[in-house]
Design goal:
Chains A, B: Keywords: DNA-binding, Transcription, Transcription regulation. The structure is a homodimer. By secondary structure, chain A is an alpha/beta fold. Chain A has 13 helices and 12 strands. Chain A has 3 domains: 1-52, 434 Repressor (Amino-terminal Domain); 55-155 and 291-318, Rossmann fold (3-Layer(aba) Sandwich), CATH 3.40.50; 157-288, Response regulator (Rossmann fold), CATH 3.40.50.2300. The structure holds a DNA duplex.
Chain lengths: 328, 328
DNA sequence: TTGAAAGCGCTAACAG
DNA sequence: CTGTTAGCGCTTTCAA
C-alpha cells in the first residue's frame, strides 16, 4: 500500500480506503489507486487486515468427511450464502472421530473465525469448552443436541427413522432389520439405529435385527456385504432400513446379484435422499433431510447473529419421508 | 501471551517459544506456561503469527465442485499429506467456471498461501498472471497443460479416452457414441470428448455420435436423459462412452428401464472409477485416474519444493483402463 | 535458556 | 474527502 500511495501521490490510508466498497473517497482517486495497484501487481494482504481490524472473514466449518454428498450439500449452502457477505469458509474433516474433531476445532479457532459450524451434537468435553470460550456464534448441525453449546440447525435422526418404521408397520411389514455402522463412532448413525430400536419396541416388534457393517461411514460395498449377512442369517426379513442411501443401494445390488426381487422379496429403504436413490432401478425409499437447507439456514442464522438481529436461536428441520419403488 | 507471561513471571518472548516444538526452552518453564495457557483459556492467534513471520501455513486449493467424489479424493490426499507438516488447506469451488476461478484465485492469494493447487490447465489470462506473480509453487492438476504455469500433477484426459476407444475397436465395436457435457465449460470433459473424436477418426470410424447432456457436471439423471436421446436418435449404437461413471450409471439405468440388456444390447463405459461402477449390476467399465494419488503427489511435490529438494517439476499419471461387465 | 526492542501490513480513531 | 498516529499479537533479531 505504501508503494501505491507513493506512485499515486496519496497517503496509505487513502489507498486502504480505495479497497473498501463503502468508504467515502472520490471516484478519480479510487480509480487511479486501483489502476496503480493492478500495474504493480499488488495483492491485498488479508492477514494484516484481519489482525488490525480484529475481525476475520472466516467461518470455520467441520464435517465428518468431504466425500459425502449430504455434507457437501450443506457446505455448498453455507458457502454460497456466506459468499454474499464476502465471508470465506475454513473447512476441516473430522473423519467421524471426536478426538480429531477436538484437534480440528482448536486449530480452526486459532484463525479467529467469526463463527463456527460443527456437525452433530456430541463432542469431547474439551471441544465443548473451546467452543463455549470462543465467544463467537457456535452452530451445531445435522442433529438436535440435548444440550446445545450455542445454536443448532438440525433434525432428530432418531425421530426421522421412527417415522419410517411407523410407515413400514402401517403398510404391513413386521420383520424389519436395520443396517448401520458399528455403534459408538458416528453418532448420527447411532441415533438412527436407536430410533429404529425405539420404534420397533413401541410397536411390540422384535428390534434385534441389527447388522453392523463396520466403522462409519458405510460404503455401498459394505451395505452389500451387510445385506448378504442379513439374507443368510435372517432370511425371513421383510424390510431393511439402511443408515444411508449409499448402503441401501449396495444392499439393493446384493439382492440383484442373488435374484431376489425388491421390494417383493425384501423391501429396502435408505436415508439422505442422495441422487442415486432417485434414479436406481428400482428407485429407493428414503428420508430427505434437506442437507442444503441446513447449510443455507445455518449461514443465514450466522449472518443474523453477527448483525444482532437473529429471530430464533435454533432451527429444527422436519425431514420428509420419500416413498419410492423399493418398498411397498 | 502477555497475560500468560505476567502470570508465569516470564517474558512474552518465552511464552512464544513455549508454543514452538523445536525451540530451546527448559521443560519446567514450558510446562508452567502451557498450564497457565490452558487455565486462562488462551487461544493462539495464527493471524498475528502469520503476519509477523511472513509465512502462513495455508495451501490454497481450487476444485470445480465440492460434491464430486474424484475431486474430494484429491483434496483428501492433499489434506492428509499436508497435515503431516501442520499445513492447512484453504479450499474454494469454481463451479466449473473460469471467471469464478479467477475471482477465487485472487481471494485465496490474499491469504498469502505457501502454495496453490488448481484443477485443470486452462485459466483466464488474468488468473494466469496472478498465479505467476504470486511467487509460490503453483500446481495444476487433473490435466497435462500445454503451457504449465509452474508445475503439474495430472494425466491426458484425451489420451485416456483414446485408449478406451482403441480397446473398444479392438474387441469389435464400430458404432461408438460419446455422452458428455456441453462443450466449452468443463475443459476436462471437453478434452475427453476430443480424445474420443480423435481416436474415432484415427480408426476411420464415424466420430459424430456425440450427445451433449447440458452444462457440466453431468448428473446421473442427465446421463439417463442423454441415453434416452441416444437410443431414440441412433438406435444402432453398439457402445457408448460417458464422461463420468455417474452419467454412465444414469445411462445404464435408462437401459434397464427400457429392458435393453447391457452389454449385449449396448455397451457402456464411464470415467473416474467411482465406487458406483464397481458395485452396480452390471459393473461399469471405466478409467481409473488415481484421484487420491494426484492429491498425495501434489502435496509431496509442494513439500519438496518448499524444502528446495524437488526431484521433478511435473508428475504425469498413467490412467488405467478397468474392464468390467458393462462392456465386452 | 531468557529478555528487549522493533516491526510485519494494515486500519481504528481522530483531526482536518 | 484525505491525512496522521498508533497499534493489532505475534516473532525476528540481537544481546545477555
Amino acid at each position: 500500500m505504501a508503494d501505491i500511495a507513493r506512485v499515486t501521490g496519496v497517503s496509505p490510508m487513502t489507498v486502504s480506503r480505495a479497497f473498501k466498497t463503502d468508504s467515502l473517497i472520490s471516484k478519480e482517486t479510487r480509480d487511479a489507486i486501483l489502476m496503480a495497484a493492478e500495474d504493480l501487481g499488488y495483492v491485498f494482504d488479508s492477514t494484516a487486515s484481519n489482525l488490525r481490524s480484529q475481525r476475520s472473514d472466516f467461518v470455520a466449518v467441520t464435517i465428518p468427511s468431504i466425500n459425502n454428498a449430504n455434507f457437501a450439500d450443506t457446505v455448498g449452502g453455507l458457502s454460497e450464502t456466506l459468499a454474499t457477505r464476502k465471508m470465506q469458509i475454513l473447512l476441516g474433516y473430522t473423519n467421524y472421530d471426536m478426538q480429531e474433531e477436538e484437534r480440528l476445532i482448536e486449530q480452526l479457532l486459532r484463525r479467529k473465525p467469526q463463527a463456527i459450524v460443527v456437525t452433530g451434537g456430541k463432542h469431547t468435553p474439551r471441544a465443548r469448552k473451546l467452543l463455549a470460550n470462543a465467544h463467537i456464534p457456535v452452530i451445531e448441525t445435522w442433529d438436535v443436541p440435548p444440550d446445545p453449546i450455542g445454536h443448532f440447525v438440525g433434525f432428530s435422526n432418531a425421530g426421522a427413522v421412527c417415522g419410517m418404521v411407523d410407515h413400514f408397520v402401517d403398510v404391513g411389514y413386521q420383520r424389519l432389520a436395520f443396517i448401520g455402522g458399528d455403534v459408538g463412532r458416528d453418532t448420527r448413525g447411532s441415533d438412527r439405529r436407536n430410533g429404529f430400536v425405539a420404534a420397533m419396541n413401541r410397536h411390540g416388534l422384535d428390534p434385534s435385527r441389527l447388522i453392523a457393517a463396520g466403522p462409519p461411514p458405510i460404503s455401498m460395498r459394505e451395505g452389500a456385504n451387510a445385506m448378504a449377512r442379513l439374507l443368510e442369517t435372517l432370511p425371513d426379513t421383510e424390510a431393511v432400513i439402511c443408515v444411508s442411501d449409499l448402503s441401501a443401494f449396495g444392499a439393493l445390488t446384493e439382492c440383484q446379484r442373488r435374484g431376489i426381487p425388491v421390494p417383493d422379496g425384501i423391501a429396502i429403504a435408505g436415508f439422505g435422499n442422495y441422487e442415486i436413490g432417485a434414479i436406481s432401478v428400482p428407485t429407493i425409499t428414503t428420508i430427505n433431510a434437506f442437507s442444503r437447507d441446513i447449510g443455507e439456514k445455518a449461514a443465514r442464522l450466522i449472518l443474523d447473529l453477527l448483525d444482532g438481529q437473529a429471530l430464533a436461536d435454533n432451527i429444527t428441520i422436519q425431514p420428509e419421508l420419500i416413498l419410492r419403488d423399493s418398498s411397498r
